[in-house]
Amino acid sequence: MSQKFQEVINSERPVLIDFFATWCQPCKVQSSVLNTVKENVGEGARIIKIDVDQYPVIAAEYGVRGVPTLAVFKNGELLWKESGVHDVNTLTQLLKQYQ
């Protein structure tokens, strides 16, 4: 997964990573928000979900201490990272800013 993860974040398009856990209630809320964000940005950005329980090494590598944590990468560079639930407009504007 780590090799694949590197390929994903090295994209020319911005990639929003949703670090989540299946047992996390706020993560479920964030997931439905991300569905709308995806509709808003279309092909301009990718949204990828990473289960921190399945991939703890990746979560640790990027300093994920709580879920949900969102991170935006472009060309392999971490551009933005925050924990907590974020709204549709904030995330849509964030991704469009990096397109």
TrEMBL record:
The keyword Coiled coil does not apply. The record marks 25-26 as: Contributes to redox potential value. GO terms for biological process: cell redox homeostasis. InterPro entries: Thioredoxin (IPR005746), Thioredoxin-like_sf (IPR036249), Thioredoxin_domain (IPR013766). The record marks 18 as: Deprotonates C-terminal active site Cys. Residues 1-99 form the Thioredoxin domain. It holds the Pfam family Thioredoxin. GO terms for molecular function: protein-disulfide reductase activity. GO terms for cellular component: cytosol. The active site is at 24 (nucleophile), 27 (nucleophile). This is Thioredoxin. It comes from Chryseobacterium soli.
